[in-house]
Amino acid sequence: MFTSSAPKERVRVWIILALCTLTNVQSQSTLSPSVSCPGSGFGVCGNQCYNQSTQQCLNGTICSRGQQLCVVKYETWYGYPYSSPSNQCYNPTNQSCWNNSLCEYPYRSCNQRCLRYNELCINNMTVCTMINWYYSYYYSYYYYYYFSFYNYQVSQMKSCNGICYDPAFQVCTNSTIQCINNCSGLCYNSSSQQCLNGTVCSRSQQFCFVKYDSTYGYQYNPPYYQCYNPTNQSCLNNSICDYPSRSCNQRCLRYNELCVDNMTVCNMTNSYNNYQVGQVKLCNGTCYDSAVQVCTNGIIRCQNNCSGVCYNSSSQQCLNGTLCSLSQQFCLVKYDSWSGYQYNPPFYQCYNPTYQACFNNSLCDHPSRSCNQRCLRYNEIIS
């Protein structure tokens, strides 16, 4: 009996040994390859080397010395869950890790939790929710949103049954928030603010019924009321502009207009910021550019004439009606450098010889798109 069962026992042993060997081989094949790090001051974290003097290994994640590790599962701003958690290093001096969310500290944390986009912290303990912050609390919320993030000044905010309210603009009566004064659904305080047709301005500001853009003059549809500061702005003919720099003789100046002697509006060919102070003058009541023109006996003439265009020869040069700066050169362009297409008629073009070249009546970048005194086409390279 013993003899007949011995072969079966041997077979079982061999099967067990074979399975153990196979399992051992498979487990070894899944191990990460050994990592060789340079020098004695380096350690291995997972499959990466790290500098032990400036870094640390926290649960397989390399962080800088002084940082801590947060297992992040939820997005901070809206609170939605991530598909998979992630290890993130953070600086505990200005960040906090609460309930698997990472947020700024102390700006956006309150009573051991991170604040959502519409939440504020009162007295470092109470979390309140802003309702309709994008509309009804436009002025109050954004004012405190800014300061709560950067200056910590949210002490004026209070909680009414878990809802934030600003006692400067609102009151809490029987757990219901009401406006002290109502401006088309917007709460305001009449002691420091004023309301006109749904627009709230501070007492120091004024209202302007804006119909036209001051820079280009296009018409708004519909027009609207806008607050402005009368110390540095003006409301003239239903436009708001800077005062006195962009207003002249009771009107706002457009982008290409300048004011001469605080009375005359001059239309220029370029934008106003291309002219120096005092550059535009009057000649017998007509505006002229003293940089390129002269006024003689009430008549405006060019200092130099380039096919009808006035220019200053001390800074520009003219060739066949084309004006270039003195630092540029002229190229008679007949062919497109990219495709070789022939222009008809050809034309003169300015170019900068420091990074461009004119070869065989083509203009191209130099040296990147030129080779052996010629411009390269789109399908040509330098070899």
Give the SSE layout.
Blueprint: H1 2-29, E1 42-45, E2 48-51, E3 55-58, E4 61-64, E5 68-74, E6 81-90, E7 95-98, E8 101-104, E9 119-122, E10 126-129, H2 138-150, E11 158-160, E12 163-165, E13 170-173, E14 176-179, E15 181-183, E16 186-188, E17 193-196, E18 199-202, E19 206-212, E20 219-228, E21 233-236, E22 239-242, E23 257-260, E24 264-267, E25 280-283, E26 286-289, E27 293-296, E28 299-302, E29 304-306, E30 309-311, E31 316-319, E32 322-325, E33 329-335, E34 342-351, E35 356-359, E36 362-365
Antiparallel strand pairs: 1-2, 3-4, 5-6, 7-8, 9-10, 11-12, 13-14, 15-16, 17-18, 19-20, 21-22, 23-24, 25-26, 27-28, 29-30, 31-32, 33-34, 35-36
What does it look like?
The protein has 383 residues and is mainly beta. Among the domains are: 41-117, no CATH class; 317-383, no CATH class. The chain has helices at 2-29, 138-150, and strands spanning 42-45, 48-51, 55-58, 61-64, 68-74, 81-90, 95-98, 101-104, 119-122, 126-129, 158-160, 163-165, 170-173, 176-179, 181-183, 186-188, 193-196, 199-202, 206-212, 219-228, 233-236, 239-242, 257-260, 264-267, 280-283, 286-289, 293-296, 299-302, 304-306, 309-311, 316-319, 322-325, 329-335, 342-351, 356-359, 362-365. Strands 1-2 form a two-stranded antiparallel ribbon. Strands 3-4 form a two-stranded antiparallel sheet. A two-stranded antiparallel sheet has the order 5-6. A hairpin with a 2-residue loop joins strand 21 and strand 22. The protein is flat, with a radius of gyration of 38 Å.
